Amino acid sequence: MSTKKQPDFEIRLLSAVRKTLIAVAKDTMTKPGLRHPLTEGTQKMITDCLDVVTSRQMAIEKESGSHTKMKPVYTDEQTVQSFSIDDLKKTLN
Cβ contacts of residue 5 below 8 Å, gap of 6+? Predict the structure, then answer.
């Protein structure tokens, strides 16, 4: 396999593994107080695998120069909106 195709394959592989592990976690989520269908050991292995996958994805992004330190924005979070003082004065007058 060529050097160019290897990172593309690895990126696709890591993405597929990450999405699958997250889907398993979501599909097996239980309501509070109910027994989880996965053992604690299996849950820990899923968490560890997600950590390894994410670390490798970040390393690939840093190597390629495409890494950003952006954090996710959740829909229930309030976002800060900036505006100019002049615009504020206009709306108050």
Answer: none
Domain count, the chain: 1
- Position 18 confidence tier, pLDDT thresholds 50, 70, 90: very high
Residue 61: predicted pLDDT: 84
Whole-prediction pTM value? 0.62
Q: Which residue has the tokens 């990172």?
A: 7
Please give the Cα distance from 17 to 26 (Å, whole number): 14
**First vs last Cα of the chain: how many Å apart?**
67
Tokens 């909106």 label which residue?
A: 81
Q: At what angle do helices 5-27 and 40-64 cross, to 10 degrees?
A: 150
Collapse the DSSP code of 21 into the 3-class scheme (helix H, G, I; strand E, B; otherwise coil) and give the result: helix
d(Cα 26, Cα 40) in Å, to the nearest integer? 15
